[in-house]
Design brief:
The complex is a heterodimer of chains A (265) and B (534).
Chain A lengths: L6 H13 L1 H7 L7 H11 L7 E5 L5 H10 L2 E6 L2 H13 L6 E5 L12 E7 L8 H11 E14 L11 H5 L8 H10 L2 E8 L1 H28 L4 H16 L3 E10 L1
Parallel strand pairs in A: 1-2, 1-4, 2-3, 4-5
Antiparallel strand pairs in A: 5-7, 6-7
Chain B lengths: L10 E9 L6 E9 L2 E8 L3 E8 L2 H6 L37 E5 L26 H15 L4 E5 L9 H9 L5 E6 L2 H5 L1 H10 L6 E6 L5 H8 L4 H14 L3 E7 L8 H10 L3 E8 L17 H11 L10 E2 L8 E10 L4 E5 L6 H5 L10 H10 L9 H12 L10 H6 L5 E7 L9 H4 L4 E4 L5 E3 H6 L2 H10 L17 E3 L5 E3 L28
Parallel strand pairs in B: 5-6, 5-15, 6-7, 7-8, 8-9, 9-10, 10-14
Antiparallel strand pairs in B: 1-2, 2-3, 3-4, 11-12, 12-13, 12-14, 15-16, 17-18
The chains are: A alpha/beta (265), B alpha/beta (534).
Chain lengths: 265, 534
C-alpha cells in the first residue's frame, strides 16, 4: 500500500468530510460498523472499572464516550479532529447530563492533547485506518496509556492483495477503506509502538451491515428529499455504485472488519 | 483394550417438555445443536424417540434470546393450574403473556378441501358452526381478559360462508376491539362484490377490517398440491375487488419444502406492486391437522424462509433485516418493515431496520441503558403479533419510528418527509407455528396468538392445534367422537390410519374403555413419584 503524497490534505479532508453535511447525510449520526453492540464487546475486553479514565480517539458525535461513561462509570476524554464535531459532541453530552464525566478535546490522533501515562484504557473505532501516519498514532496511544493499560481498536482490514481501483480513490478513503491495512500490519505497527496484541476477532458482518445501512439511508433520502441531496452535492447513483463495489469486496474477502485488544507492555 | 472415548456430535442447550406426536402424552424433551441447526428430541415410553428440526440457524436461535421481553399479565385467567403445561389451557395463571391476537373459528365447514389445512376443515357432514350467542360469549371472554383487545381474527373453516359472518364482525365492532381480521381463501371475495362492499362499509380508519388472504404462490402446481385446485384467477379477483373497495390485505402464504419455497420472493414482489396488499405473512406449513407427507428433520423453519427470501430478493434484503418479535418467544416469529417507493423506472425498497438500530431498542437482556421509551414502545407495537398494516396503532408506531430517523446535523426534516411514507410501508412476517413434533412447552408458555373457544377458554394457538384441544372442542361442539390427529410424518407411516377428515390418526387409538375421551396431554414427566425410588 502506498503512502499518500499529501497526508495533511487528506487528513483534514477526511475529518472535514466526517463533519460535512453530505457525509452526515450518507453515514448518519451514530453508525460505525457493529454499532453499540460491538462497542460493548470492546468495553468488556478492556475490563473497565469505575472511575478509571478512558481515551476515545476519533470520538465523533460521542456516542461511545457516553456509553462507556454510563455503563462502566468511567471518565472519558474524547479526541476528534473536526472542530464542529467536537462542539456537537460536547453539547449532546451536556444535554445528557454527562458533562462532568465526559470531556471532548479538539486534536489530532498523531499528537494527542493529553499527558503521558494518564489513561487506563483507550478506544479507537473505525478510525485507525484513516490516519495517514499510523506509526505516529500508535506511538501516541502507547504514550497516553499507563503501563498495563489496554487499547481496544476496531477497524477495517484488507486482504494482502490490491483493492479494486475505484475504491482506492479519495471517496474510498473517506469511507474508511483505502488506507486500511491487513490485520498483520496493524499488529506490527502496534507492537513497534510497545502495544502487544492480546486478542483479535473478525467481525466482517459488521462492515457488510454498515454498507447496507449507507445504501438504505441514501435510498430513503432519494425517496423523501431528492433535491436536498442534489444541493449537498451527493450523486446518489455514484455513491450507490461505490456501496455496491464495497459490498462485493466484502463478499470476496478483500475487505473485513476486526476487533483487536492490545496492552501497553 | 477399551476403545477411545468419543465426543457427542451435538451441543445440548435446553431441557424442556413436549408431547409424543402419536399418543400426545407429555414427555421430557431436549434441544440440541448439530451442524449449526437446532433440533428438539424426545422419547415416549410407548412410541420411542422423535426428533424434529426447529430452527435452521443455531446462531440466530441463540442470539434471539436477548429479544425476549417481559410478558404482560392479562386481566383474567380462564382456568387454574392443575396438571401443568400444556394440559391446563387456558389461559392458566402460569401463562407468561397476554393475547396479542385472538382467533375465533366460526365453523369447520369450507368451500375447499385443501390437501394442507391445519384446521382439518372441508365439505364435512359432521362439523359445527357457532351461533351469535356463542360468538358474543367468545368476544366477551376476550374483552374481559384484555380490556381493549388489539386484534380479533375470524377464521374457520371458511368464515365467509357462515351466514352470520357480517353479524359477527358487527359484534366485534360493538366492543372495544381495535382491529378485525377476516382469514379467508378469497373465493367469496372474488365472486360476491356485494359482500366485499359490506366489508368495506365496516372498514373505518379507527376500526379497520383487514383481509387475511390465503395466498401461496403463482405456479399451478402450488395451487393443486396445497389447495387441491387452481385458484389463481380467484385470488386475483379477490385482490382486485379488495383494492376497488379500499380494503387492506395481508397475504398469508403457507410454504412447504419442495412445493413452493421457490415462490417466496415472487410473493413479496407481487405484494409490493398490488395496491391492496400491505403485508405478507409466511408460515412454514404447520404439520398439525391435514398435510402432505413430510420429514420432520428437513422441514422449513423461520430462518430457512428468511434465507430463501434473502436469496430470492438479494437487492432488497439480507437475513439481518429480520428481527425476532419480543412479545412471544422470539424464535416463533420474525418481522421486518420496508419503505417502498414505486417509480416508473424503478422500485426502491428499504428495510427499516437499516435505518434505525432495532438492536438498541428491542434488546431486553444485554442492554444496560434504557433506550428512548417512546421509540421502544413504538417498535414493540410494530414487532408484535398484533401489528397489522392499516391498523391505527401500527400506523402511529411507524410515524414515531420515522421520527427517530431525524437528522439534526443536515437540516432535513425527515420525520415530515417520512410521514408521507406511511402509505408506502410494507410488513413481512415469518411465523413458524408449532406442531406435535416441534412443540416446546417453553415457547408455548409465552404464546400470544390464542384461540378463543366457544366454552370460554383462551388457548395458545399451537397448543390448540397440537396437543388435542382442537379435537376436544370439535367433539364437544359436534357431538361426534374425534380421534387425536397424528402428523403425517414419513417415519410414522406404519402406525397411521386415515381420519374421516383427510388427516391421519393413530392406527389403534387408546380409550379408557367407557367411550370417554382420554385426558388432554396426560403427563408422564411429573407424575408425583420420588426422584429415586427405594
Amino acid at each position: 500500500m502506498t503512502v499518500p503524497e499529501d497526508t495533511e490534505r487528506i487528513k483534514s479532508c477526511c475529518a472535514a468530510a466526517y463533519g460535512n453535511d453530505a457525509v452526515a447525510l450518507v453515514l448518519g449520526e451514530s453508525y460505525h460498523p457493529g454499532g453499540l453492540v460491538l462497542t460493548r464487546r470492546v468495553a468488556e475486553a478492556l475490563r473497565l472499572r469505575p472511575n478509571q479514565r478512558v481515551v476515545d480517539v476519533a470520538s465523533g458525535p460521542g456516542a461511545t464516550a457516553r456509553l462507556l461513561a454510563t455503563e462502566h462509570h468511567v471518565t472519558v476524554d474524547g479526541v476528534d479532529l473536526g472542530e464542529s464535531t467536537v462542539a456537537n459532541a460536547r453539547s449532546t453530552t451536556e444535554k445528557a447530563g454527562l458533562g462532568d464525566q465526559v470531556r471532548f478535546h479538539h486534536g489530532d490522533a498523531e499528537c494527542l492533547p493529553l499527558p503521558d501515562n494518564v489513561a487506563d484504557a483507550l478506544v479507537c473505532e473505525c478510525a485507525f485506518c484513516t490516519f495517514p501516519n499510523k506509526e505516529a498514532a500508535a506511538a501516541e496511544f502507547a504514550r497516553v496509556l499507563r503501563p498495563g493499560g489496554r487499547a481496544g481498536i476496531t477497524d477495517v482490514t484488507i486482504a494482502e492483495q490490491e483493492l479494486p481501483e475505484e475504491l482506492s480513490t479519495l471517496a474510498g478513503w473517506v469511507a474508511c477503506i483505502a488506507d486500511a491495512r491487513p490485520l498483520q500490519d496493524y499488529l506490527r505497527i502496534l507492537a513497534d509502538a510497545g502495544l502487544q496484541t492480546l486478542r483479535t476477532e473478525t467481525h466482517n458482518d459488521a462492515i457488510a451491515r454498515m454498507i447496507d445501512q449507507i445504501d438504505a439511508r441514501l435510498r430513503v433520502l432519494r425517496m423523501t428529499s431528492a433535491n436536498r441531496l442534489t444541493e449537498a452535492g451527493v450523486d446518489v447513483d455514484a455513491v450507490l455504485k461505490h456501496t455496491g463495489l464495497a459490498r462485493q469486496a466484502v463478499a470476496d474477502g478483500l475487505i473485513g472488519y476486526s476487533l483487536l485488544i492490545a496492552e501497553k507492555v | 483394550m477399551a476403545g477411545a472415548k468419543r465426543d457427542r456430535d451435538e451441543v445440548f442447550v435446553e431441557y424442556t417438555k413436549s408431547i409424543c406426536p402419536v399418543c400426545k402424552v407429555v414427555v421430557d424433551a431436549q434441544v440440541n445443536i448439530r451442524d449449526n441447526k437446532v433440533y428438539l428430541r424426545k422419547r415416549c415410553r410407548e412410541h420411542g424417540w422423535f426428533e424434529a428440526l426447529v430452527y435452521g440457524d443455531a446462531q440466530a436461535y441463540l442470539a434471539s434470546t436477548r429479544f425476549n421481553k417481559p410478558g404482560t399479565i392479562p386481566l383474567t385467567f380462564q382456568t387454574d393450574v392443575k396438571d401443568g403445561c400444556p394440559s391446563d389451557c387456558g389461559l392458566c395463571p402460569e401463562h407468561k403473556q397476554h393475547a396479542c391476537l385472538g382467533i375465533i373459528e366460526v365453523n369447520t365447514n369450507c368451500n375447499l378441501d385443501c390437501p394442507i389445512c391445519f384446521a382439518d376443515s372441508g365439505h364435512q357432514p359432521d362439523g359445527y358452526s357457532i351461533s351469535l350467542e356463542q360468538c358474543e360469549r367468545m368476544l366477551d371472554t376476550f374483552v374481559a381478559a384484555e380490556g381493549e383487545p388489539e386484534v380479533v381474527m375470524f377464521s374457520g373453516g371458511e368464515p365467509t360462508i357462515h351466514k352470520h359472518i357480517l353479524d359477527f364482525i358487527d359484534l366485534a365492532r360493538a366492543r372495544p376491539i381495535k382491529v378485525v381480521n377476516l382469514n379467508t381463501n378469497g373465493i367469496r371475495l372474488a365472486t360476491d362484490k356485494r359482500f366485499v362492499a359490506a366489508l368495506a362499509e365496516r372498514n373505518r380508519p379507527d376500526r379497520p377490517v383487514n383481509i387475511y388472504l390465503q395466498f401461496d404462490g403463482f405456479d399451478e402446481r402450488t395451487h393443486r398440491e396445497i389447495r387441491g385446485k387452481d385458484l389463481r384467477e380467484r385470488k386475483r379477483g379477490a385482490l382486485d375487488n379488495c383494492a376497488d373497495a379500499g380494503l387492506t390485505v395481508s397475504l398469508a402464504a403457507a410454504i412447504e419444502r419442495g412445493l413452493n419455497e421457490h415462490e417466496i420472493g415472487d410473493i413479496v414482489r407481487f405484494g409490493i406492486e398490488h395496491p391492496a396488499v400491505r403485508s405478507v405473512v409466511f408460515q412454514p406449513v404447520t404439520h398439525s391437522g391435514r398435510h402432505v407427507e413430510f420429514d420432520p428433520l428437513t422441514r422449513l423453519t423461520n430462518s430457512d424462509v428468511i434465507e430463501l427470501l434473502a436469496a430470492q430478493c438479494p437487492d432488497w434484503f439480507g437475513k439481518d433485516d429480520f428481527f425476532p418479535v419480543p412479545c412471544c418467544f422470539p424464535t416463533c416469529r420474525s418481522v421486518t418493515y420496508l419503505l417502498v417507493d414505486r417509480r416508473a423506472n424503478r422500485t426502491d425498497v428499504v428495510p427499516i431496520p437499516r435505518l434505525i438500530n432495532i438492536d438498541e431498542y428491542l434488546d431486553y437482556v444485554t442492554n444496560r441503558v434504557m433506550p428512548d421509551a417512546a421509540v421502544r414502545a413504538a417498535l414493540e407495537k410494530l414487532w408484535s403479533a398484533s401489528a397489522f398494516m392499516g391498523a391505527e396503532t401500527t400506523a402511529r408506531s411507524l410515524e414515531t419510528t420515522a421520527g427517530e430517523l431525524d437528522c439534526v446535523a443536515c437540516g432535513i426534516d425527515l420525520p415530515q418527509a417520512v410521514k408521507e411514507l406511511d402509505e408506502r410501508a410494507f410488513m413481512i412476517v415469518v411465523q413458524d407455528f408449532q406442531d406435535p413434533y416441534t412443540l416446546n412447552v417453553k415457547q408455548l408458555m409465552k404464546c400470544c396468538v390464542e384461540e378463543i373457544t366457544p366454552d370460554g377458554r383462551i388457548i395458545p394457538f399451537c397448543a390448540y392445534n397440537s396437543v388435542g384441544y382442537r379435537e376436544q372442542v370439535r367433539e364437544q361442539m359436534s357431538g361426534v367422537r374425534v380421534a387425536d390427529v397424528v402428523p403425517n410424518a414419513v417415519e410414522l407411516q406404519p402406525v397411521l390410519a386415515d381420519s374421516p377428515y383427510g388427516s391421519k390418526v393413530a392406527r389403534s387409538t387408546s380409550s379408557d374403555g367407557n367411550g370417554h375421551r382420554p385426558a388432554i396431554a396426560p403427563d408422564t414427566t411429573n407424575v408425583g413419584r420420588k426422584a429415586v425410588e427405594r
